[in-house]
Structure formats: C-alpha cells, structure tokens
C-alpha cells in the first residue's frame, strides 16, 4: 500500500513553485483550521467575488490582481486498487486585488480559476485511463501528474499572454468560450 498527497500550486501572473517529484511514500499535506488554510472548491454555481480575495496586495507586483488556484491530488492504493481524488481550489488568503471595483478584472481572475478546473478534469480523465490496478499504475502516476502540472502552468501562462492579462477583451472572450466548451466536454470528470 502506498499513500501520496500532492498539492500542486500555481499562482497566476506571479510565480509557480518547483515541480514536486513523485515519491510513493510522500507524507500527506497537513490540514489545519487556520485562516491560512481556507479554501474554496470550484463549483459551476458559485463564481468568485472580490470578497474572496483576502490577501494583502503586493505593492511591488505590476499586476492588478493575483489568483492563487491549486490542483490537489490525493491518491492511495487499497487492496491493490487505485483510489484518487483531484480537487480544484481557490486560496482566499493568498489571492489579492489592488482594484476590487473592476468587474472585468474579476472576470479575468474567474477564468483563471475555471481554467484550473479544466485541468483538474483532464487529470481525473488521465488517472482513470491509467487503470485501477496499483501494480500497473505506480510507475505511471508520477510522470502523469508531472505532465498534467506542466500543461496546466503552460496554459495559464499562454492565457495571460494572449489576453494581455485581461486587457485584450476580444481574445479573452474567445478563451472564455473555449474554457466553457471544454468544461462541458469534460463534464463526466467533474
């Protein structure tokens, strides 16, 4: 039996952490009840609001807002069967905005969160495709997760670059339609 818990983090427009190498015996991420661990799970019925952005703005950062969105993976083998859960979460205390009046800026930040959910669904799809036997999955799990993280980060960067961090409204509308379509196509992996 092996147990892993990975928290893959990406903070849009600011930085991305180093890739976490896969180790079957990786210790679980400890949960606590402090405000620092506050999370909002992605939901089709709940959009972000400026009240969700509780972090202190970085005055030296040129961006107007920062969305801290995470993919969290909890995978374990039980009786040689892979069990996993992939979550898309928003971290309020690590997310901030210098302008909490702009609905256009909030919409851009929502698209980052929605794009993270697309990648959560893609990861669920990829993990299901690995099969359920832990004997077959163990060597493939690490590379699958690493590739999923790299694709997620690359697409977030591509999104920001192509929409100029929300300033190119026409390009952003195209991205919004694409993200919505992909969410529908991947509904089975919600």
In DSSP terms (H or I, runs of 4 or more residues), the helix count works out at 3
Total number of domains: 1
Principal-axis shape equals elongated
Percent in strands = 15-25%
Biggest sheet: strands, sense, closure? 4 strands, antiparallel
Determine the structural class based on helices, strands and strand pairing.
alpha+beta
Low-confidence stretches: 1-6, 8-32
The helix content is: 25-40%
Mean pLDDT: 85
Along the chain, the helix and strand elements come as: EEEEEEHHH
Could you give the distance between the termini?
27 Å
Number of strands: 6
CA-based gyration radius? 17 Å
Architecture overview:
It is elongated, with a radius of gyration of 17 Å. It has helices spanning 103-129, 134-162, 169-185, and strands spanning 3-11, 40-41, 65-66, 68-78, 81-90, 96-97. β4 and β5 form a beta hairpin. α1 runs antiparallel to α2 (134-162) and α1 packs parallel to α3. With 190 residues, the chain is an alpha+beta fold. Mean pLDDT is 85; it is low at 1-6 and 8-32. The two termini are 27 Å apart. This is DUF922 domain-containing protein. It comes from Pontibacter qinzhouensis. Keywords: Signal.
């Amino acid at each position: 039996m092996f147990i892993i818990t990975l928290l893959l983090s990406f903070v849009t427009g600011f930085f991305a952490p180093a890739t976490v190498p896969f180790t079957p015996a990786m210790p679980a991420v400890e949960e606590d009840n402090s405000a620092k661990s506050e999370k909002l799970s992605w939901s089709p019925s709940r959009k972000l609001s400026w009240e969700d952005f509780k972090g202190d703005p970085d005055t030296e950062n040129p961006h107007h807002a920062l969305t801290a969105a995470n993919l969290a993976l909890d995978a374990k083998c039980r009786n040689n069967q892979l069990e996993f859960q992939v979550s898309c979460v928003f971290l309020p205390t690590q997310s901030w905005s210098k302008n909490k009046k702009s609905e256009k800026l909030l919409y851009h930040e929502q698209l980052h969160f929605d794009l993270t959910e697309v990648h959560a669904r893609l990861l669920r799809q990829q993990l299901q495709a690995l099969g359920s036997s832990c004997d077959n999955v163990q060597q493939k799990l690490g590379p699958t997760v690493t590739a999923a993280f790299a694709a997620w980060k690359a697409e977030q960067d591509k999104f920001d670059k192509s929409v100029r961090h929300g300033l190119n409204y026409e390009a952003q509308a195209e991205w919004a339609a694409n993200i919505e379509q992909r969410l529908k196509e991947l509904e089975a992996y919600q």
